[in-house]
Amino acid sequence: MRFAFRQLFKSPGYTLIAVITLALGIGLNTSMFSLMNLLILRPLPYPEKDQLVRVFRTTPQNPRNDHSAPSFIDLRRESADFVRLAAYRQWGYTLTQPGRTPVNLSSLRVSADFFDVLGVQPAYGRTFTPEEDQPGNQVIILSHAAWMAHFGGDPGVVGRTFTIDGLSTTLIGVLPENFSNLMLWGPGDAFRPFGLSEQEKANRDDVGVQIIGRRNPDVTPEQLNARLATIYTNLADTRPRDQSEDGINAISLQGSTIPPGTGISTIMLLCLAGFVLLIVCGNLANLQLARAVSRGREFAVRAALGASRAHLLKPLLTESVLLALTGGVLGILVTVWGNEWISKRLSENLPVNFDLSIDWRVLAFAVGLSLLTGLVFGLAPALLSSRVNVGEALKSGGRSATGDRSQHFMRNALIVLQFAAALILLSSAGFFLRGMKLLLTRDPGWTPAGVTHGIISPPAARYTTPAQTLGLYSSLEERLRALPGVENVAIGWMAPIYLFPTTRTFVVEGREPPPPGKEPVALVNAISPSYLDTLRIPQLAGRPFSNSDHHEASRVVMINESMAKALFPGENAVGRRLSSGEGATRVTAEIVGVFRDVGMAGNPSPTATPYQVFLPLAQEPWNYVAVMIRSSQPMTEPLRQAVQALDPNIPVQMLNTADELAKTGIRGMELITKIFFAFSLLGLFLAALGLYGVIMRLVMQRTAEIGVRMALGAQWRDILTLIMGMGFKLALIGAGLGFLGSALMSFGLSALFSGEAGIDLVVLPLTTLLLIIVALVACYLPARRATKIDPITALRAE
């Protein structure tokens, strides 16, 4: 060990370069592993977590659907002997405190045994009792983050009453800090009892309830799913026709936190970071080989004195591992910086913090990766260096002690490998940059520019009737239209941004209904009459909604162009009728208009525009709507002031321009693109540096040969071509192999952005050309130096 340290201190320049590049490579890989740890590996903080499950309703289109409240009640009743089921649903409440601006609490309504099923005890106070799980019980539990944000972490607030949605509500508990989980509960600021009304208990069309459970220890996951499937099949007659063929599937609660595709995306990032480390290893392996060549006489003397090959191998491997471990220690600092940057980017538009802290799994990965890296870049040079021909080495002064042919082959193979990896990194970044451009320039079918957006949620406890709710919306529209610079105002369930769209199934009146589960599914949005004009959505047929389409008028709808063509090919859709729901909830409406397909402006999904149905807001008012203002300048503050003037207890959420909000849907893609771009630039630089170093060493080793060639009449162009040809040939072979790997990457990434797999014939040639240009520059610099060699000086030195 001490000998290895002495050797490294003898070459401080080499040691410093090796440690810095290793720190970058190991640090970047560990940072990507931290992201995987957060999204996939970190266990949930609940006791006996292996028994926890999440129960989904499955359809051919989606394996992860929510349930209706009656379905949850039926399942819980029928399965009580082998699993304890609890339910929750996303909700929103408004907290009002004297002298403070009202704030929205992103909340969950939960069944009384929700926390018992999870095995969670509050940090302060208590959880809900069965008696509190009834309509009208005004109790609430806060998350640790909400308690800190709104009450400064004061334990004394537990047991006090506060105004929630205009009603006096008692805070009965505060959850532990580690309870929060964005993938499961969302931001989860507050929790209230489910308190299902009789109407909710009977409404099987409202599928917004999520189910978790704890299976009995003696019930295996397979047995649980088999029993639940039997129960669900037996209950098929109780469900609406469009749900009668649905299935059910219980997966581990841990597994349910991983959205489909997340694992693949994270692993892909880790692999690409691995390419950077592979290039680092290639450079260091070449440097180690060069150092070993310079120490050939030393190895020969030690071998002549009786040192075995293992004794020669040991110090070389020890040096490599010491370098890698030192780089790993500094790499932890790179990881901390990288994690802070990623966490900040992820949290920019979400009211949560992403915990990318370094735990034992991340540390173990960093240590293991450091050891592996040391072996990867140190083993081959060490094996070559320890294979000593003593007589030849001492005779030649050590310059050929390690076998020139083997060294030459290894150097060439490493350069080829580095350039192949660099092209894969470069092309991947190019695919994402091109894909981001497609997303940003895709025509969404409406005009986000010039639109200000905000969401309001009038408390249902105070706005108890549709007339009250619609009166508030009407007054708000009038107040906003009167402001200078406002062109138009609209209100709807949602803006066409990437914001949790609602879906329903529809059938055409007068036709044979399709088989259960095959009904057309459409995005549904209830809108005010000025919605199309405000967002500049073209009307293609029929009429827009008007003030006469009120709650007591005949039901009407508008459908998008894709739905009209699919359901009524070659026909006029206007005047036809659609129905949705069954029994008491069945609604039939006349199609009065057709509008152009509206894409979600921030939706990164490459799938075709789905069917879309607009309803008059006056016929289905919600206590949660988006307000949109088209104006000559942003109206964020005037919108807030207008709402406060009408009701000071209503906060405005997601207050921003539509352009900015649309970008939130592709924020993750932007982050991945930036990471890819950074990886590609670093990989390209390191590969070019490695090629430059190899060619420079060849020039130094062949100085005498170059001198002889020039003395015999070779021109500088001949020398330039000779030297550049050595490296450029290797770069071309690496580019060819990298082209094949990049083509495979192109298939996956092009499908991600455009919906169709294929080879990107724009990015691949351009990135290959860029790599070749960089290779030419890396070869030209040492080749140019070779042309300036003085033949006399070179021959005299030899």
Automatic annotation (TrEMBL):
| Family stated for the protein in its record | Belongs to the ABC-4 integral membrane protein family.
From the Swiss-Prot or TrEMBL record, state where the protein is found: Cell membrane
Keyword line: Cell membrane, Membrane, Transmembrane, Transmembrane helix
Q: Where is the ABC3 transporter permease C-terminal domain?
A: 272-389, 678-791
User: Does the record carry Transmembrane helix as a key word?
Assistant: yes
Q: Which residues cross the membrane?
A: 12-41, 267-287, 321-342, 362-384, 413-433, 675-699, 719-741, 761-781
Q: What is this protein called?
A: ABC transporter permease
Query: What is a single cellular component term in the Gene Ontology annotation?
Result: plasma membrane
**Mode of membrane association:** Multi-pass membrane protein
Single GO MF descriptor = transmembrane transporter activity
Residue ranges of the MacB-like periplasmic core domain? 15-230, 480-635
